[in-house]
User: Which sequence fits this backbone?
């Protein structure tokens, strides 16, 4: 394969330097974006970009160069830069590239955007919001078509080509009534085709509706340890944070992950199962190849509370003498439970519905603290009122161990599928 | 960089044409393993066109004459696509034409990649040799430069080269099985050669970082609740930028910021004057000196709060027209393919008259917060900042270190509670602000004494 002449030329230049191992990845992208500001479509943007990433390993030394100009002289200059970086690099036997795998082509989504339909959908969204939610202010919104073509080739004979064309929508908003305004919130999702009403997809409508309610808030006036009902939007963020501090290359190489020796052990409630499914048909915004040159596969990370896989790349796996994950993470899917969202609320004696969290990065031990944003106070099984100036503190690992229920409803964001999750043991403190 | 004047004949409407190259380089050692050794070059041309109230934008990584002309043409077509479907009676502030050239790059001979690598390795080696109980360490070097040439249909012509070099050190120890971290960043505007000479020059600061880390590991969790505290320059700077600055960016104001109704109203203690400096403070260059912005507007200081009263917002050409005022050079773009947005430049509270030691002595039971990890705020001015280094203040003296905590509140309320402002000014040059695009920012200030909500465990 490697039909791209730029990739072929770069591989040839590296081959002429007699380097032991090398990998070339050409990422060509074209983005078409319609931007909404102050309730109007204000900008149409067309961006073409190219990124050529060259990684070389020689005598157990490694270097990488990224360029976006791909004329012959730029490729030659990149070769010189790689050689200079290699010369000054450090010896590490864990540096490697992926072994030979059969050449493959992968296609996700479509290749060209439909600008007229993008415009119509976006205008429809703006008009529906103005009509149904007049107090809402769309601070910013965009509908984007992202097309990427990735050609990854290495000196072991790996040759993958992935094309992907996906629409992404996001909207940021506040609501205002007189001098009172709500906290900013946002919603987003990805889709293959322009076949969805933007307002009625994922959590766009529910978050907008809640934002209107959040014009009037009050702080919780006490400090207590209570339940937290986590929304699908925030659960997606929480799992990404969990992966970063517990499962990633950095945390495991540094030895700061408390899960470093936990494969096969129970680390969470048996109600919790998490997969990373970048190849699943349910995940439209997935991926087929990893950046270190492997075909990606769907994997189980936590199965009924038991840790099944870290998220180690090739280098991290060799460095820590642990198993390489068969994908690069993300595209997370949390299995649904058996209780409805409504019934979960009824089970909360005292706690909050946590929709968004603004907090510092958690410590490696999982401790975190910050503000509960766009959230609600729950007491005696009923949602009471929207809250402000309310801080929460807890531990991510404890939250996963203390799960009470997971909802049977899930939300598909296109890049993840999340239910609501009810946990407990979190300190909630008001003003 | 490419000469752009020959393309002005292709400007059919209000047009900006920008050629830009960003370069970055990183070296990262994690526990002595070289996990990052990388260079990145990103360059291209972009054009933005304003037509009957709509904007069209296009960009291309290829910068030969034909591609530049095609990029201008595509930007026009995009503006026409929108303006053909919606009628708007909008205009922009065009301002006057300015021509400037600023090169902040080094005039010294550049040192080799090997010397850079050796410099970082020597700091890493120092840590290994000196601190036996450090269980994790990250030492690295990050370099970023932005080189831009701009031509506008108004006639502004600008060249700028801005480099930034930072060395970062993150140390970790374990206390009763809990991993505890702290980090510090050194450097700022300029190439490596203008900022660093010998690794040993940084050893004293690394020792201080280790001392803070040990105090933190043996320290306590902060008590939750509203406390009397001193925010050192690092935190006062992020408060100025994140929690006040963003609410006074005119696009955020139009999007529903709480500051919309605050002009000419008292919003803070009268000890507070808060400014977004264009390029200089007290005759010295700020971390991000902007003389002409990415819309071709001459940059001037924006005095956001003067003696406690909110005075003005930050604008681009579009919001300036909406507010019937002038733009002062806040429109900035990060990559060649990014459109200029309303961005801060160097945002800080002006120094006061108090001495830091007197401020600490004035608190019976509170905290001295020194370093922040990250921060967020929203349009209500409600903010949250992580505190990664801090101490208790007991009876006017610094006491035990504290573990990671967060502080939160409504920024305008916090600024109303300010009773003392220190007489020093410390700039942080490492800031990267995310608002659709990333952008380097400067922030800083004096220390302030205020009341703030502290998150405990």
Assistant:
């Amino acid at each position: 394969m490697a039909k791209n002449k730029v990739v072929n030329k770069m591989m040839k230049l590296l081959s002429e330097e007699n380097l032991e191992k090398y990998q070339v990845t050409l990422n060509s992208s074209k983005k078409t974006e319609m931007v909404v500001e102050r309730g109007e479509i204000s900008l149409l943007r067309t961006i073409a970009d190219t990124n050529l990433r060259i990684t070389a390993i020689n005598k157990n030394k490694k270097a990488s160069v990224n360029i976006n100009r791909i004329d012959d002289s730029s490729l030659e200059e990149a070769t010189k830069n790689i050689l200079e970086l290699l010369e000054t690099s450090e010896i590490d036997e864990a540096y490697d590239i992926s072994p030979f795998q059969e050449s493959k082509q992968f296609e996700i989504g479509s290749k060209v955007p439909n600008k007229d339909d993008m415009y119509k959908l976006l205008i429809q969204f703006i008009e529906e919001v103005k009509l149904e939610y007049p107090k809402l202010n769309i601070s910013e919104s965009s509908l984007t078509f992202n097309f990427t073509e990735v050609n990854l080739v290495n000196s072991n004979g790996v040759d993958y080509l992935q094309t992907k064309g996906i629409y992404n929508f996001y909207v940021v908003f506040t609501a205002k009534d007189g001098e009172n305004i709500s906290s900013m919130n946002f919603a987003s999702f990805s889709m293959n085709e322009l076949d969805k009403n933007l307002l009625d997809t994922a959590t766009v409508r529910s978050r907008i509706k809640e934002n209107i309610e959040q014009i009037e808030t009050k702080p919780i006036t006490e400090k207590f340890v209570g339940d937290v009902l986590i929304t699908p939007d925030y659960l997606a963020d929480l799992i990404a944070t969990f992966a970063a501090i517990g499962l990633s290359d950095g945390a495991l190489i540094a030895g700061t992950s408390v899960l470093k020796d936990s494969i096969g052990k129970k680390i969470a409630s048996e109600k919790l199962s998490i997969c990373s499914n970048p190849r699943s048909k349910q995940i439209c915004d997935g991926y087929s190849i990893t950046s270190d040159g492997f075909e990606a596969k769907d994997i189980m990370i936590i199965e009924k509370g038991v840790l099944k896989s870290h998220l180690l790349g090739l280098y991290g796996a060799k460095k820590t003498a642990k198993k390489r994950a068969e994908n690069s993470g993300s595209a997370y899917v949390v299995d649904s439970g058996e209780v409805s969202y409504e019934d979960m609320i009824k089970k909360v004696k005292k706690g909050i519905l946590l929709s968004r969290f603004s907090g510092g990065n958690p410590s490696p031990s999982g401790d975190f603290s910050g503000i509960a944003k766009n959230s609600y106070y729950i007491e005696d099984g009923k949602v009471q009122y929207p809250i402000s100036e309310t801080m929460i503190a807890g531990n991510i690992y404890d939250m996963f161990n203390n799960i009470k229920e997971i909802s049977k409803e899930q939300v598909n964001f296109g890049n993840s599928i999340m239910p609501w999750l009810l946990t407990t043991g979190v300190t909630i403190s008001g003003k | 960089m490419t000469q752009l004047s020959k393309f002005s004949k292709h400007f059919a409407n209000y047009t900006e044409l920008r050629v830009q190259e960003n370069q970055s380089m990183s070296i990262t050692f994690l526990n002595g393993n070289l996990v990052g050794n990388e260079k990145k070059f990103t360059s291209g041309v972009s054009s933005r066109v304003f037509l009957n109230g709509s904007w069209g934008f296009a960009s291309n990584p290829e910068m030969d004459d034909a591609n530049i002309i095609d990029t201008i043409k595509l930007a026009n077509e995009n503006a026409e696509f929108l303006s053909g479907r919606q009628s708007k009676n909008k205009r922009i502030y065009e301002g006057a034409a300015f021509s400037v050239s600023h090169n902040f790059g080094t005039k010294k001979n550049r040192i080799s990649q090997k010397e850079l690598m050796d410099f970082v390795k020597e700091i890493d080696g120092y840590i290994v040799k000196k601190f036996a109980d450090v269980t994790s360490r990250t030492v690295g070097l990050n370099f970023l430069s932005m080189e831009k040439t701009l031509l506008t249909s108004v006639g502004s012509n600008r060249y700028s080269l801005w480099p930034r070099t930072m060395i970062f050190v993150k140390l970790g120890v374990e206390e009763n099985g809990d991993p505890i971290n702290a980090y510090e960043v050194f450097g700022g505007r300029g190439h490596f050669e203008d900022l660093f000479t010998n690794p040993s020059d940084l050893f004293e600061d690394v020792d201080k970082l280790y001392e803070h880390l040990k105090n933190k590991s043996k320290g306590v969790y902060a008590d939750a609740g509203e406390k009397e505290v001193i925010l050192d320059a690092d935190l006062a700077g992020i408060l100025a930028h994140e929690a006040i600055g963003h609410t006074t960016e005119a696009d955020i104001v139009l999007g529903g910021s709480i500051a919309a109704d605050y002009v000419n109203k008292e919003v803070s203690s009268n000890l507070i004057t808060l400014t977004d400096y264009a390029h200089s403070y007290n005759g010295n260059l700020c971390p991000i000196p902007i003389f002409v912005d990415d819309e071709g507007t001459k940059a001037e200081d924006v005095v956001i709060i003067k003696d406690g009263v909110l005075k003005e917002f930050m604008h681009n050409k579009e919001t300036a027209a909406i507010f019937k005022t002038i733009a002062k050079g806040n429109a900035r773009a990060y990559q060649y393919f990014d459109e200029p947005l309303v961005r801060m430049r160097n945002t800080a509270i002006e120094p006061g008259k108090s001495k830091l030691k007197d401020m600490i002595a004035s608190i019976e039971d509170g905290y001295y917060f020194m370093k922040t990890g990250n921060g967020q705020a929203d349009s209500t001015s409600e903010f949250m900042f992580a505190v990664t280094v801090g101490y208790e203040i007991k009876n006017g003296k610094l006491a035990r270190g504290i573990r990671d905590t967060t502080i939160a509140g409504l920024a305008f309320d916090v600024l109303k509670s300010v009773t003392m402002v220190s007489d020093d000014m410390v700039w942080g040059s490492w800031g990267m602000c995310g608002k659709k695009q990333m952008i380097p920012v400067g922030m800083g200030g004096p220390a302030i004494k205020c009341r703030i909500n502290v998150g405990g465990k």
In short: The domain at 5-217 of chain B is CATH 3.30.2290.10 (PmbA/TldD fold). Chain B has nine helices and 24 strands. Chain B has two domains: 5-217, 225-455. Chain B has a mean pLDDT of 95.
